[in-house]
Amino acid sequence: MSCLRSKRTKNFMKFHEKISKSKTTTMKHLIVLSALFVSLIFSACESKNSDRDFIADGENLSGYQNQPGTLNEQNVTDKTRKETQTDGNEVSSVNITERKLIKQGTIKFETKDPGATKEIISGAVKEFNGYISSDNIQSSNSIIVHKVQIRVPAENFDLLLNRITESADKLDSKNIRVLDVTEEFIDVEARIKTKKELEARYKEILTQAKTVAEILSIEEEIGKLRTEIESAEGRLKYLRNQIGYGTLIVEFYETPGTSFGFFDKLFNALEKGWEGFLTFIIGLVYIWPFILILIGIIFILVRFFKKRKKKVKA
Q1: Mean pLDDT throughout 87-100?
Q2: Nearest Cα to Cα of residue 242 among 100, 102, 99
Q3: How far apart are CA 46 and CA 51, in angstroms?
Q4: Which residues of 190-202 are buried (b: 16+ CB within 10 A; e: fewer)?
Q5: Any residues with CB less than 8 A from the CB of 73 and at least 6 apart, and which?
Q6: What are the residue ranges spanned by the domains of the chain?
Q7: How far apart are alpha carbons 243 and 237 in whole angstroms?
Q8: How far apart (Å, rounded) are the C-alpha atoms in residues 243 and 239?
Q9: How close are the terminal C-alpha atoms of the chain, in Å?
Q10: Of 8, 40, 83, 205, which one's alpha carbon is 20 to 30 angstroms from that of 101?
């Protein structure tokens, strides 16, 4: 009996050891499986986040056609906006010491010798590396007015202005205006950079497009972006030109002397009268059909009344 009990005890111990070993292996398998499951979840989340950063509005390209001009300028330009803000701060910190200024001015004065004044202006423009963009002459009430528009490098604007002002006999008016376009200049530069980055992203997506509809939709958005970029670049070029060269408008005139006597007035009156007479003749020529009709009506009426008088006398 004791032998049987010992055998049963040994068998029970072996069975218990087998069960404990199977439980250990099962726990190991569960731990491995749970680790694999967690790693798969993290990898899926990372892939979704990368897709969201790469394509703004989801998983298909149909959204591009419904929401033109966006890829979207929320998700696609989140990073570029942050970069633009940091870069913009750097640009502003660098350029804020060198303001972007547009100088403009007008002066008007009287001179005794318009020819000599014109030579002084031309010499000063040449000396300060400028150029004359327009030159007009107007005559009104015996006063000849010269109007010259000058473009000169911004650093020489004040020098040219002082040189021309010194040559004036009587200064009538002087208006100088300085426009600060620093903020607009930095903003246009930042917008160009952002739109070019957005255009590059569209081109990357274009290489991954699979259908004709997707290709056409993306190319349409690229075309719109290219138009906006060229427009902004044109504005930036204009600002650079205006900043680099100031604009000065110079008006000078000569008034006639006081020897405007009787004979001069008489001659002018005869001249104006002759011009008025010629104008009247030209006007009559324009209405000659109506004059003929009027003459015919008068002729008929005169004959009618003559015949009537003859009948009354008879």
Answers
A1: 55
A2: 102
A3: 9
A4: bbbbbbebbbebb
A5: 198
A6: 1-54, 73-256
A7: 10
A8: 6
A9: 188
A10: 83
